[in-house]
Amino acid sequence: MQNCQHLEPAKTPPARFSILGVGISAITLEEAVGVIKDWIESRQQHYLNICTAHTLLECYDAPDLADIVNRSGLATPDGMPLVWLGKLQRHRIGRVYGPDLMLAVCDAGQAAGYRHFFYGGAPGVAEELAERLKARFPSLQIAGVYSPPFRVLSRQEEQETADLINASRPDIVWVGLGTPKQDYWVARYRPLLDAPVLIPVGAAFDFHAGRIKQASPWMQRAGLEWLFRLTQDPKRLWKRYIMGNPRFVYLVGKQLLTTSKRSTYR
User: Fold this and answer.
1) Residues 76 and 160 in one domain
2) Residue 4 lies in a domain
3) Total number of domains constituting the chain
4) Using an 8 Å Cβ cutoff, are 165 and 173 in contact?
């Protein structure tokens, strides 16, 4: 078991700003990688939440989930609307897209020998992901992979899962279970795991394993990735986007009309 005591003082976390009662970290991709590296080097234990408009709607409907995100080490702006809202509130901010964060952290951790564990995905996805990342980053250290069953685990199974992960001595546990399941997972497993950092990245598993296509860069920059994903999997995603997007716009518009644009999260 790794020594998880803090070896150096915690650094001041990035400022947060409020969207629908959730504190989003005003941060860039490069800064997020730096924070993660600091946590690993100092053996601080944290989890992240990679936030989109869908995440915030889930938080709006579930206060316990909002509490989980607000207690995270970072709540990064994955969705472009969150970046635009941060800039509207005059924050220095950039998109911290889950798939990009995974690649950036894997690359940055090669020299330091960070160990990565991949938890989640359909059967075989975690293995494919690890193989592709290893081919892309030859010095990447793979601690282990595990695809859990599609059901609620018993307490004994949860402890066995934690023991399995801890035995592999990872520095980072990547979680691909989809929102909000993965966000609950990192909060629930945080006390059970020795790894300094837990990062839920959802579809990044399927993207980097080659199972699902990604939207083109221009669609991502324009905030239209949701439209591309909807065309790829309409049966599963139509409710999230066709019903969720207008609701998000309405709720955020209501917030902007009733609060100062310069308000900050506390």
Assistant:
1) yes
2) no
3) 2
4) yes
